[in-house]
Every structure is written in structure tokens, then in C-alpha cells.
Specification:
This protein is α+β, with helices and mostly antiparallel strands. Among the domains are: about 110 residues, Beta-Lactamase (2-Layer Sandwich); about 80 residues, Helix Hairpins (Orthogonal Bundle). The protein contains eight helices and five strands; from the N terminus they run αββααααβββααα. Helix 6 packs antiparallel against helix 7. The longest helix has about 45 residues. The protein is elongated. The N and C termini lie far apart (about 115 Å).
């Protein structure tokens, strides 16, 4: 009876394993545009033999699982030459540390269609010291095309902004030149102040155009930083020029002060202050 029960227990265990394997196969075969695989590359990683390939191989590579199990090169020969070399380098690095490797590769199928694939795989040592790779391959062609389209849009946007920057700066420089010529003529105190304010406004607008371009350079990782002197007095004077006219129109007091402890006073700079009359 003990022998009979042992046989029944073994059969039940084998049946449970068979059910589990069937579920895993069904799961890996029913997912669209995905292929699961196990690859044996021998002890030194130089051999290639697939020990398992899910049904997704027919959709992703236009070949049968039997063909792939018979010859691994049926898949590897579909990789674009440049990407094939990159995958080999990634595999070598992964073998050294037994770490996961990831790669984006282009596959050219028998029908002539070329699509992007994402491969992630991890190596492990078997009892016979062979290297086994558990991996998954996913179709990402639509994602890569969307990425390329977005990059093309960004390039067009940058080119447009560069052109607009040139088109804006040209008339601005013309206006600034005329104002500077006007400053060289005989002007009263009020006219001189107006000309100075107009030139400062043109300079601010020019800097604004440059700042807008810098934002897009940041997005494109092309922004270069540089060290430059910061003129505090000039900045305060610019702010004063922006708001002084509006303050006068509303009969408000406007003051712009720099603390006497500021280092600029060591060079003889004066304390800046301006006021206008208030409503009584």
C-alpha cells in the first residue's frame, strides 16, 4: 500500500507540474508582440542554442519556434549588423558580472519589414556550468517612431526659434542704433532720459529673446554655462526705468535702494534713490 501511495503522490506532483507548465506556456503565447525565451550559450558564452521560445516568435520574427530551436541564427541573423555588434558587447559585459542587459535593436524580417525591438535578458549558471539566459523581447517600433517624430519636431522648433531670434534682433538693433544716434544730437534733460529708457528697453528685449532660446537649449541639453560679472547697480537702474513712468502716472512713490554695506560702494558708487510725489 505504501508503494501504491507513493506512486499516486508522484503522479499527482507530475500532474501539478504539467498544469503549471501549461499555464506558463499559455500566458507567454497569448501576449501580443512579446516573445519569451531561454537561451543556452555553453560554458564560455560562445554557443547559441534556444531551449525555449514562446509562440510570439512567429509574430516578431516571421519564423516558427521549431526553426529557432533548431538554429539560433535564424533570429540573430535578422538583427541589423550595427545592432548585432552592440548586443554582443552587452552580452559580454553581462556575463562578467552575471547582470541583466538591455538593448534596443532593429530587426529585418524575411518579408523585408524592419522594426525596433527591446530585449532584456539575465544570465545564470546551470548545474552543468552552462550559461542560461532568461529573456523577453518586445516590439517597440511604434514607440521609437513616436520618439523620432518628437525629436524631429524639437529640431524644427529649434531651427524656427533660431531664425526668429535673428529676425527679431535685426530690427531691434536698427531701433537701438537710431536711438543712440538721437542721443548724440542736442536733447533736453527729459528727452535724454526718454532716449536712455528706450535703449534700455531694447536691450532688455534682446536679452529676453536670448533667455527664451536658452530655455530650448536646456530642453535639448545644449545649454553652456559661463561665469560673468553681475552689475547690481545696472540691474536696479533697469528695474527703476521699467516702473518709474507707471509710478509717476499713478502718483506713487518709487524708491530703489542698495544697502551701503554692499561691496559696490567701495568703488565710489552712489546710493540710488528716486521719488515722485504722492497723492495728498
Amino acid at each position: 500500500m505504501d508503494t501504491a501511495w507513493n506512486i499516486l503522490d508522484q503522479e499527482e506532483a507530475q500532474l501539478s507540474l504539467g498544469e503549471r507548465d501549461a499555464r506558463l506556456v499559455a500566458l507567454s503565447s497569448n501576449l501580443p508582440e512579446v516573445m519569451f525565451y531561454q537561451l543556452d550559450t555553453g560554458q564560455d558564452g560562445q554557443q547559441r542554442r534556444f531551449t525555449y521560445v514562446s509562440a510570439g516568435v512567429e509574430e516578431l520574427h516571421e519564423v516558427t519556434a521549431a526553426q529557432v530551436l533548431d538554429d539560433a541564427n535564424v533570429i540573430y541573423n535578422q538583427f541589423v549588423k550595427e545592432d548585432r555588434a552592440r548586443v554582443a558587447e552587452s552580452e559580454i559585459l553581462a556575463i562578467k558580472s552575471l547582470s541583466t542587459f538591455k538593448a534596443e535593436v532593429r530587426v529585418r524580417m524575411p518579408s523585408g519589414k524592419e522594426r525596433w525591438r527591446y530585449i532584456i535578458s539575465a544570465p545564470r549558471r546551470l548545474q552543468n556550468n552552462h550559461l542560461a539566459w532568461d529573456g523577453v523581447e518586445i516590439d517597440i517600433d511604434d514607440l521609437m517612431k513616436a520618439k523620432e517624430t518628437a525629436e524631429a519636431v524639437n529640431r524644427s522648433k529649434s531651427e524656427f526659434l533660431d531664425n526668429m531670434s535673428h529676425e527679431l534682433r535685426t530690427p531691434l538693433n536698427g531701433v537701438m542704433g537710431m536711438l543712440q544716434l538721437m542721443q548724440a544730437t542736442t536733447l533736453d534733460t527729459e528727452q535724454t532720459e526718454y532716449a536712455k529708457t528706450a535703449i534700455q528697453a531694447c536691450q532688455r528685449l534682446t536679452r529676453l529673446v536670448s533667455n527664451i532660446l536658452d530655455l530650448f537649449r536646456i530642453e535639448a541639453d545644449r545649454l553652456e554655462f559661463k561665469n560673468d560679472l553681475f552689475a547690481l547697480l545696472e540691474t536696479m537702474s533697469t528695474l527703476e526705468g521699467i516702473f518709474l513712468s507707471a509710478a509717476r502716472q499713478k502718483e506713487l512713490v518709487l524708491t530703489a535702494d542698495i544697502a551701503r554695506t554692499c561691496p559696490i560702494f567701495s568703488s565710489g558708487m552712489r546710493l540710488m534713490s528716486c521719488k515722485c510725489s504722492t497723492i495728498s
